Amino acid sequence: MKHRSDIDGLRAVSIIPVLLFHAEIPGVGGGFVGVDVFFVISGYLITALIAEEMRQGRFSLAGFYERRIRRILPALLVMLLVSGVAASILLLPVDFQEFSNSLTAAVLSVSNIFFWRQSGYFDDQALMKPLLHTWSLAVEEQFYLVFPLYLMAVLRWGRGRWVAAVLPVALLSLALSVYGVAHKPDAAFYLLPTRAWELLVGSLLALGAVPALRGRLANELGGLLGLGLIGWSVLTFGDHTPFPGLNALYPCLGAALVIHTGTAPTLTARLLATGPLVFVGLISYSLYLWHWPVLVFANYHTMAPLGAGETAAALAVCVVLAVLSWRFVETPLRRGGSPIAGRRAFGFASVAAVLFIAVGAAGHVTGGWESRFSPQVVAVDAMSGNRNDALLPCHSRPPEDVAAGRLCIIGADGAPETWLLWGDSHAWAMQHLYDEAFRSLGVRAVVASYDGCAPLFGITRVGYAGPCRAFADAVARLVEGGGIRDVAMVAFWEGYYRDTIQADVRTTRHDREQTAAALNRGLVSTVTTLADRGIRVHLADSLPGVRVNAPRALAAALAWNRPIDPRFTAEEYHAMNRDYFAAVESVRDRLASRLTLWRTLCADGRCEAAANGLPIYFDSNHPTRTNFAFATDPIRRFLREGSGPVAMAR
User: Fold this and answer.
1) Which domains does the chain have, with CATH numbers?
2) Do the Cβ atoms of 479 and 535 come closer than 8 Å?
3) Calpha distance 273→275 (Å, rounded)
4) How far apart are CA 639 and CA 539, in angstroms?
5) By C-alpha distance, which of 454, 633, 641 is closest to 537?
């Protein structure tokens, strides 16, 4: 294939938004689509090379994989080695153990599966996983493990009708992606079956599925439209955009248009072929490898969002490391005369895999190399696993189970089930405390709780795969069935107002302001609806939480002997909950009781993060299983109050 400088420039167009997005630069909320552009470029270039060699009768699987090893592995291994050293210095035991596991997954090209299996509502924030970005490399390598074999089979038994054989696979993968985004978003994001179509878009271009555009104007418009689709995706997509699915079509088709029209001397092709963009494109692989661990380790060290100067310095380090990697690792070792050319490439890959797997296994079996830290640091750090995992079967039940009453029951044995504990993950995290309180009061409750779903009627959480609206509707049917006399509503209200997009029938646009209005209406309507049915409503306010993962921050402060205070002030807590408090005030007289644990936790002006020397949260806001016992008596008083003016249980 003739080298195309415009494709080098397109690589730059894909990597720059990724860097800016991961550095949390405002205005590029859809920068993650750069990875999808990479997939299309990769599918086009690799398929073109494979098809050309197959047509000429000189394709070799061994030769193909040997080239992939020389292209991908050296720079990757250097990054893994340096990251491993940095991780051994910086990461606390729990995080280092996870890093060790991800190191093994990255070497085996299964990190997409590894991070998918870790994903979920309680998954730790991405900025604490130095090797998370290797998921996309794993998708590519899995694709190229099977795709050449498929093309060979079609050449032999399908008379070389590659387009006819590849197109249905691409459409099926796209259909799976659309379905997955709606039903299994984590799997749709990470796994090959729902991502393969993006690479196959490039493959279909390389196989001649799309005829060349005729006329200069058509090519000019096609190239500009392609750039426009990519740019529009970068500027308008965000955390709440369902992805990949149909939304991934925009950047992928944009990349395809740029590639397809780039053989003509268009304005887009000339722009992309300019020196600076070409150079960024040449170092783009190394830049992708280095940018993420640098940003993660910088954030881990500060235990706080990076400032503008810190972000600029981190990005500068990324570029320097990328240039060095490209100049002294990528370029020399990808050449045919390199020390790992030919059969030596497979020996190099095998030895490297064994060594890194051994290092990863050592990190795992030593509990994240706990001996680096004092027992106190290890104990504080370990609180990140101190939660109610045994109660997870009671949590996030399907709506049909709720409506039918197929729910866990807590409280006093033999008592009638007249209470409903309705909430989100906070209801799950404190379920054992409510169970103890119900037992002491001689009553029983059914539990209806779902991750990330506010216990409110008539509210839809936008861009969230959980069945929040259906779950709330099922709760309504459960209540209408009779028997429920008291409802305790337990949720992290602050998180819904601050971090989600919510809508109801009166919502006209999806933004923060409309979210607050919809939640306020939902809260007022839900309390009023229940109270009008003669049901006593008991409302628990949000816990204060902390700025970052509490066990990590408190353990780091001990380990590094430096002040790291993750606590909010009481003033900040009230500011973050201003809209919620206003809504509660409007239904104050309809509440049977209200739980205000924040009054105790924030009594001294700063909201506590620890008790008895250990964190009270296992992440940034969910209470630990064993170190939140101080809430037992307030919860009991909260449930016992049933009439008269609002009773606030501290």
Assistant:
1) 5-372 (no CATH), 387-546+568-616+631-643 (3.40.50.1110)
2) yes
3) 6
4) 10
5) 641
What value does the CA radius of gyration of the chain take, rounded to a whole number of Å? 28
* Contact by Cβ (8 Å): 423, 451: no
Q: Are 161 and 154 in contact (CB under 8 A)?
A: yes
Please identify which residue in the block is written with the tokens 């500027």.
Answer: 235
3-state secondary structure of 355: helix
pLDDT tens digits along 65-98: 999 999 999 999 999 999 999 999 999 999 999 9
Q: Which helix (H) or strand (E) holds 136?
A: helix 134-157
How far is the C-alpha of 361 from the C-alpha of 493, rounded, in Å?
41
How long, in residues, is the chain? Answer: 650
CA gap 23, 315 in Å, rounded:
8
- At residue 643, the pLDDT reads 40
- pLDDT digits over 325-359, tens only? 999 999 998 876 778 888 899 999 999 999 999 99
Backbone angles phi and psi of 194, in degrees to 5: -95, 0
Residues of the chain with pLDDT under 70: 1, 336, 642-650
* DSSP codes joined into one string, 630-645: GGHHHHHHHHH--SSS
546 phi, psi to nearest 5 deg = -140, 175
Place of tokens 């990470």: 190
